[in-house]
Amino acid sequence: MKRLRLCFCFLLALLISLPVSLRAQEWKVPLAMKKLKNGLVVVVSEEHSAPTFGLCISYGIGFRLEPQGRTGFAHLFEHMMFEGTPDAPKGVFDQVIEGGGGFTNGDTRYDFTEYIESAPISALDPVLWLEADRLKTLDFSPANLDNQRKVVEEEVRVNVLNQPYGSFYWLDLPQKAFNKFPNSHNFYGEFKDLDAATIQDVQNFYEHYYAPNNAVLAIAGDVTPSEMFEKAEKYFGAIPERQVPPRPDVSEPPQTVERRFTEDDKLARVPALAVGYRMPPRASHDAVVGALVGELLHNGEASLLYQTLVKEKKVALSVDGGLNWPLGNPFEYNGPTLMTSFVVYPPNVTEDSVLAAYDTVIQDLAERGSSAPELERIRTKMRSDWYDQLQIPIQRASVISHATLFDGNPARVNEIPDELSKVTSDDVKAFARKYLVLTDRTIIDRVPVSQAGGKKGAQP
C-alpha cells in the first residue's frame, strides 16, 4: 500500500511539473459534424456532466454583410426573429423556453447573427421545433416591423445619441479606419434606412440570408451525435435551401498614412481617445499573436498601457481595448478588423501628451518584446479563459457554431490554446513592428464641447 501511495505521489508531482501548455492540451472539445441535404451544417459536442444543453444557430449575415442602403438591417432582423410566426405567435417562443426552465437571446456581430438557448434536456425537442419554425417563415406584418424599428431606433438613442462618448470607439472608428462600405458604414443603422424599410424589404432580406444553407446549428450538452443528427433531420430537413447572395468583397486597400480626427461630444465631461490599428487576417498565426498582444496592452490594471499611462505618467484615467474589441472575442471575425484602445484622459492633459506616452509603450514592445513572466501570465490567462468558456454548454455551442460558419470545420476551437502557447517574445516584437505602426493607425479625439471650441480636424 505504501509503495502504491509513493508511486501515486510521484506521478502527481510529475504531472504538476509538466508545462501548463502540455497539460492544457490533454482536454479536447468532442466534436461531430454533419451537413443536411438542404445545406444546414449541424455540429454536436457531447457533454453529460448535467442534464442540460446549449444551442446556437448562427447565420452568415452580420453588420459587415448587410446590403448598401440597408444599414442596420442585420440588427433590425435580429429583433424581427422574436416577433413570432403564423404557427407560434409573438411571445410563444419565450414562454415555451422560459417556462421549461431555460433562457434565450440573440445578438448581431460583424460577420454573423446568432440565436442561443439553454435549457434542461427535456426542452430540447420544443426548442428545435421553435428554431425550425422561425427558419421556415415569420409573421411579416407592418405592426411587427414598426414596433421593432422603434425599438432599434430607441436603442440607438439610448446607447449612442444620449450617452457620453456614444460608442465612438467601436461605431465611429471603423468608419474612419476603413474605405469600403461593408467595413465602414454605420452598423447600428441610419434612421433614413430604417424608416424607409418596407415589409417587402424585410421579407426579401429574410429569404436571402435566413436560409439553412447559410446557417450552422450547434448543440452542446447531454446529447449524442446520432440522436442530434436524427432530430436535426426531423425538424430542419424539409426546409428548402435558398439562394444566398454572394459574399461582398470586404478586402481593404492598404492604408498609407495615419488618419486623425477630432469629434465634439455634448455629454462627455472629459476627453477620450480611440486608437485603432488594422489587423491581420483571422486565419493566420499573426492574428493569434495579435490576440495575445491585445491582452498584453489592455488586460486590466496590470496591462502595459494601464501601468504606463495611468499609474506611471498619469496622463490617462482609464484604458480599455483589445483585438476585435468590444464586439466579440479576438478569434471571431471574418474580415478587416482593428486592435482598439479606448483611453479616457484628464482635461488638463493634451492629446499629444497621451499619444507620446502611448507610443513609448508600443515602441518598447517593438524593441524588447515581452518579458518571459508577463508573456506566460497572459498566455495562461487566455488559455484558462478559453477553456472556461468551452466548459459552459451554451458558450461552447456559440463558439463552435461561429468557427464552423467561418471555416467549415469546428476543430479550430481545439487549436487555439496550443497556438497561444507557442507565441514567443520574438513573435510579439515582430507583430508590433509590422502592425502597430503609424501607417496602419486611425485616431479619434473625442472632446467635450466646453473644450472643443468648435475645432475639428481630419486627415484622409
Main attributes?
alpha+beta; 6-stranded mixed sheet; Cytochrome Bc1 Complex, Chain A, domain 1; 19 helices; disordered N terminus; 5-stranded mixed sheet; 460 residues
Task: Tell me the distance between the termini.
Answer: 77 Å
| Model regions low in confidence, pLDDT < 50 over at least 5 residues | 1-25, 454-460
The assigned structural class equals: alpha+beta
- Side by side, the strands of the main sheet go 1-2-6-3-5-4
Give the total of domains.
2
The CATH topology of the largest domain corresponds to Cytochrome Bc1 Complex, Chain A, domain 1
Mean of residue pLDDT values = 92
Shape: globular
- The beta-strand count equals 11
CATH superfamily of the largest domain: Metalloenzyme, LuxS/M16 peptidase-like
Q: Measured on Cα atoms, how large is the radius of gyration?
A: 24 Å
Number of helices: 19
User: What is the H/E string?
Assistant: HHEEEHHEEHHHHHHEHEEHHEEHHHHHEH
Q: What is the percent of helical residues? A: 40-55%
Largest sheet: 6 strands, mixed
CATH architecture of the largest domain: 2-Layer Sandwich
> Beta-sheet strand percentage?
15-25%
CATH class of the largest domain: Alpha Beta
